[in-house]
């Protein structure tokens, strides 16, 4: 076929790929050929397909290698259009009838988690165990550049996906259709400090200095709404919206922003734009003149009004950006419809602010705002709202974050530690922070309650010390995170994926909602429950796919293809790295994040041959460094491709072997040889870990000694395990068994 469109009466079908078809039906007017809120590209390569007219009892049939569509005429919503997928994951599950939901959907994401304490039901995403899904674009507006306009004609507008359980291919097709996520600026991958609190200028700078003194890297400084005047004349309404600096709190804002920039930080301000621009604002006279307002008329918020939109950016936001504001936190909470056209103001805000910011920053735009629906991945990053500080909220968050990838939304930013309510709980704060390290964005946040702030030194040392260690780790991981950022943008390979993406036919992959893939090398099994009172360890259920794996914190090696319970102390987080992986780290974690590291520390996980490509960017320039680990000859090869001389000319590499020990490698012509490599003594590792676990467990000393003697006297693993089963406490049994059955 030379075209990919078939029209029969009021029905139009567009075969985009052998597994993706567009279905349109209109009652009057013309079909929609333009771009919409969701869909940006339909110029796919035309696949082979067959069309049958008036065949058997059907008006139309369309056949590809991926599906067979049947149409019997009339309104397809009446059930006279259905599609059989070319795969079958159940007796009846391969057939979809137009207008019916797809079964076994794996979920998508929601607009906000505001005031949620625990779980919330997620709407359908693109992935289902049935292997099919439907994206409904019928209600979305047209999107022309950064203008959202209602459709001229109402129509049924559906996209049917039939990629089976190839979830990554489904996501890539979705991105090809809707646009790939843009690169987010490198600084956004670092630690964010945020708090809803009326800081004073000197107080805020002193806090940043204290972070530096404590060796806690902060890349993004967030000022919540108290940066602007909140006490305003009652005749102007609420002080929630504001654009004028509070001179009492910030007497010299330009100097503040310059000092933060000099420290290598970027700055965002919180805005609630719903009330528009009112007469008490410093920018009001300029806005009133531009909009021809008189008698102290407020400039009502309306981004569909071209004059207001122009003034809103040029006269209100751009002057603040000239002072040093890098991007905006858009805190829209006022509903989903505005004006006669009924277009969601959140969509208008996200599109307009992101595009404006990208223009100001040479294509590297950024906002912080709530999710507005499918297509929102083009306007990162997402603000998930004001969550409750509870274990229930923490337990939901790993699943929520990973499942959002099912609708292409890969850059969620959560209130790490919870925004409000809850009780003082150092362990909860620590476990949430550790999850934040292995999240898309790490933004510490809390309310203005004086006892709720998230600085590590507000907690006892047993929590504060690992908090600082893990905040440092986040910045060490920046090379790994920045590479994942590029892969998301270029290849649609999300940083965070549910386990079933890589293992779609493994039953266990669907049964570990707290577990997810974190980049190409890591699996994170989130710790989301308090530690056991006796063992002093957190228990985490873990499923590892086939292969060999290492625990990031302890270096212990695990055999895959099994489900088990992991036990971890406060200094450890259950992250597992595949043998053969190479993870690049920046050892200078206090370095400004926009500076590429001079030294890279490479963690090499022995036990398999592996390859990793590091991607580094600056503006439009890009450099790659390929690392190959040869596990047969124990050598590392490094190949740099840097056509724009982007990388530091004096870059050096240090290496750390996981699973083995060696003297410093011998480097020659981009190759590091580990000639004296010795694999770790697994028995010695087990013994050390067991002794440590017994040391800190709250057990009688006599019982600890009895257990230790039994371990030393055991002839083999079987006899030791037989002894462990005689212990009464199941948690104690588990922490001892994990060290043997790995």
Percentage beta strand? 15-25%
Number of continuous helical runs: 14
Compute the number of strand runs.
38
CATH names the topology of the domain at 5-178 as Immunoglobulin-like
Uncertain spans? none
Indicate the CATH class of the domain at 5-178. Mainly Beta
Q: Could you tell me the radius of gyration in angstroms?
A: 28 Å
Terminus-to-terminus distance: 56 Å
Outline: globular
Kindly name the structural category.
alpha+beta
Mean pLDDT across residues: 95
CATH architecture of the domain at 5-178: Sandwich
* Main sheet attributes: strand count, strand direction, barrel closure: 6 strands, parallel
Strand order of the largest sheet: 17-16-15-14-13-20
Pfam families: Glyco_hydro_31_2nd, Glyco_hydro_31_3rd
Domain Glycosyl hydrolase family 31 C-terminal: 492-583
InterPro entries: GH, Glyco_hydro_31_C, Glyco_hydro_31_TIM, Glyco_hydro_b
Protein name: Alpha-glucosidase
What does this molecule look like?
- The protein is α+β, with helices and mostly antiparallel strands and 742 residues long.
- Among the domains are: 5-178, glycosyl hydrolase (family 31) (Immunoglobulin-like), CATH 2.60.40.1760; 581-679, Immunoglobulin-like; 681-741.
- The chain has 14 helices and 38 strands.
- It has a six-stranded parallel beta sheet. The chain has a six-stranded antiparallel beta sheet with strand order 21-22-23-28-25-26, covered by helices on one side.
- Strand 5 (58-63) and strand 6 (67-71) form a beta hairpin.
- Helix 4 runs antiparallel to helix 5 and helix 8 runs parallel beside helix 9.
- The longest helix has 18 residues, at 306-323.
- The model has no long low-confidence stretch (mean pLDDT 95).
